Task: structure prediction
Amino acid sequence: MASITLPTRTQHENLRPLNILRDLPAVADLIEQCFSDTMDSEGRRYVQDMRRAGNDNSFIKWANRVADSTSLPLTGYIWEENNQIVGNISVVPFRHRGKKLYLIANVAVHPNYRRKGIAGALTERALQHIREKKIKDVWLHVRADNPEAIHIYSKLGFTEYTRRTSWQTIAGHFEMNNPQIQITKRHPHFWQTQRLWLTRFYPDLLAWHQHWDISSLRPGFLNWLYLLITDVNIRQWVATKNNQLHATLSFIPHGLGKGLYAGAGDRSDPEALTVLLIHARRELLHYYPKLTLDFPVSDFDEAIQNAGFQKIRTLIWMHATL
Result:
């Protein structure tokens, strides 16, 4: 992992800490303006929640007490020009296996003020904030189609860990007939292979951000009883070819994660994943017309597209050590 050496701290009269008493609505407007073209339904809800929170006195009182301990974007810095917020960065604390880390998020600069060093200055101040908290692990994600931001973070010492694409279903009827591929419900004897595949595609190192527990998919009476009590209706299927497992798919509607979680091996037939995703679309369409899938950039991208999914965005996850 990379280790960052921060430059001597520079004071900027335009840069100040986020004030959640008055800044949240303006920051929400800025984030929406900068990211609306790749914002999914969850992202739009996030912006709406931010606006509502800015007008909720009880929330603001609570937020002031827990800003440094809750995994919400309540701490950060903004850049002002002519009394207008034109830049923002959030510093969000998380915990993973008892260890605290920080995510730098919501790095947004108004289009009219870009290429002026604002994003770099905000990032340097966020890193100073994290170092003052004596936390060493820092993560961020940046859109793969934003080479200027990638360059800024690389110069600051961040290195790429992985690339992940957010997929969402599009309208239409999709078919792929392959009589060799069979779709069935997930049988318990597939669990060990499924667990290995999911561990690869949804690594533990990012579990703090994904908010899900792979063990929620394991077979067994006790897990079934727990899901029944918590009212989490998980659906699971597998695709086999010539009696060999080629792909797995799980759907989690809420809690413990959300959306589709796919697994496949190095020797899996990509068509198996396509057929499996099409099958899930048919079974879930009536209740969930829009399905989402978070998946690492891989040789299965075309297989996912062939099932009627479109790319919302591809994010590069980057990490550094202070």
Summary: The CA atoms of residues 41 and 249 lie 22 Å apart.
